[in-house]
Write a structure and sequence with these properties.
The protein is of the alpha+beta class. 56% of the residues lie in helices and 12% in strands. The longest helix has 37 residues. The termini are close together.
Length: 366
């Protein structure tokens, strides 16, 4: 850090500047930040990034295997994939895909494909990459049991899974700061009562609570209503840890000189909480929130995998993993487990990011 700023600059640097300098030295956290930013960018622009409509099925291409992209053709940069054709084993009569070397499927960037509406507003048919000819097929990560492109479904599933993490943490953040702040600021009997409620919620088995709450949802609800309800269910169970963090910090800050000065200056209680105490917790709250998002994503994945979360036609990583419940499907198409890899990468990146923010929360630590 001293190589970046002089001692004089460090003495006058703001807290946010010191936090950034310390965070920047954490290589895994910077890597996690880049991965998380990329994932949320993909989720925000899923329609043009995905090569196909995620709901487009083709009964003749069931469990189509992944295709390898060849980037050079006769030493010239010309991406293409080799198509497959479906044949039957002459002995077992089992269907199988074999490479068709008689032709090539040319690929291009910013290809014309299936029309879509970005965010339901902007109409377009340009995809970041795809087959050069509109009628050709391309399955970089294979196809599912209905002949739908797995890559396009994973990209679209990122929007639901990642947004549930953000929306759920936002609700948990509101509850955690409000309840934890009241508990730590007023202390005494108020703190005792709030902590007993938090301990009761924490003592409840999480998965059975999720299952029981999700099971009462009407089966005929539209996907959007189910989405918001699942988010609310996850948030109502996940706010307790953040409330404890805020409560502990408030108890530690109550006796600090700047809080006492605010009292003597005649500041009201809301002003002391929101103008003086909460800003000093910003870095700690950001770290706690970042570490809470993976739990939200895993919760949605678990509920959807068990059939109690988002259901078709809604697409999420958990809903896609329901295909992996069938052993025969996995034996025939192991690429159906790839949504689980997306979950693992996201959770690891968010944990790296959260660890870096937590370490950087105290910029004066060595």
């Amino acid at each position: 850090m001293s190589a970046t700023l002089s001692n004089r600059d460090l003495d006058t640097a703001s807290q946010s500047r010191l936090v950034w300098l310390r965070f920047r030295r954490h290589k895994m956290a910077m890597f996690g930040l880049c991965v998380v930013a990329l994932l949320y960018f993909i989720a925000a622009f899923a329609e043009p990034i995905a090569p196909f409509n995620p709901d487009k099925s083709n009964a003749r291409l069931v469990f189509h295997p992944p295709q390898t992209v060849h980037f050079f053709d006769d030493w010239a940069f010309s991406p293409y994939v080799l198509p497959y054709k479906l044949v039957r084993d002459p002995v077992t009569l089992q269907p199988a895909y074999v490479t068709d070397g008689s032709r090539k499927v040319a690929l291009r960037f910013f290809a014309t494909g299936t029309p879509y509406k970005l965010w339901g507003i902007f109409e377009s048919d340009i995809h970041v990459f795809g087959p050069e000819n509109l009628g050709d097929n391309m399955f970089l990560l294979g196809a599912d049991r209905q002949g739908r492109d797995v890559l396009s479904r994973i990209i679209h599933g990122a929007r639901a899974s990642l947004s549930i993490g953000l929306v759920g943490v936002s609700i948990s953040l509101l509850l955690g700061i409000t309840i934890g702040g009241i508990s730590g600021f007023f202390a005494g009997r108020v703190d005792w009562g709030v902590q007993r409620v938090i301990e009761f919620i924490i003592s409840l088995p999480t998965i059975p609570i999720w299952l029981s709450l999700a099971a009462v949802l009407p089966k005929d609800w539209p996907p959007m209503a189910t989405y918001f309800t699942i988010t609310l269910i996850i948030s109502l169970v996940g706010w307790t840890e953040l409330a404890r963090v805020v409560r502990g910090r408030f108890l530690a800050l109550r006796g600090d000189s700047f809080v006492t000065a605010a009292w003597l200056d005649g500041c009201s209680q809301p002003r002391i909480i929101f103008r003086h105490m909460l800003p000093s917790l910003t870095s700690h709250i950001i770290a706690a929130v970042t570490l809470a998002i993976p739990n939200m994503i895993l919760a949605e994945t678990a509920l959807s995998f068990l059939g109690l979360g988002l259901k078709p036609p809604a697409i999420s990583w958990g809903a896609l993993l329901r295909e992996a419940q069938n052993i025969q499907s996995i034996a025939a198409a192991p690429w159906l487990l790839l949504p689980g890899a997306a979950v693992a990468i996201t959770v690891l990146a968010l944990n790296f990011l959260g660890d870096g923010l937590r370490d950087a929360a105290d910029p004066y630590a060595h």
